[in-house]
Fold:
Amino acid sequence: MNEAESSSKIEKRWTSPMQKAFHFDSSSEPYVADAAVLCCFDQRIRLAVNKFLQRRGILRPDMIVVAGGAKTLASPRNDFERDFILEQVRMSILLHRTVRVFLMSHSDCATYGGLAAFGGDHGREADHHKQELLRAAELIRTNFPEIEVECFFVTFEGIFAMKADAVEQVA
Ligand SMILES: [Zn+2]
Structure:
């Protein structure tokens, strides 16, 4: 293929109309987000998280789904990662008037090396995540003092709410 043919092919690709690949009627109404929710992209926790949010009345969440969830604030791989997530929260507040942030981490998260990194000890793992969630919450409070923060640790048996000095199962 010569250069002219090649460029005309590219042009055609970009000017041809998009084809409908799926039909689904969605509400186009603007909304106020019930919460910005930072959680891991691990598919194993998705259903539990979705059901939990519904149970909590978080029907319009701004989902920030990234590898590690709250780890991106507590123990970011680099400044870019942390700043990017803070910016996502800022955008949720700005665009959807979010007043609450849910921070989540989960058991056997690969970004921590899984449960194996804690020698298979669920207690040690939970203690570590508690510290991580507290640090992530502190960062949110420092950056967005007006925002309410709640922290949750997701396991394969349920979801645990973090309090300053205790952990309680809520789902
Ligand atoms: Zn994970």
Summary: The chain has one domain: 31-169.
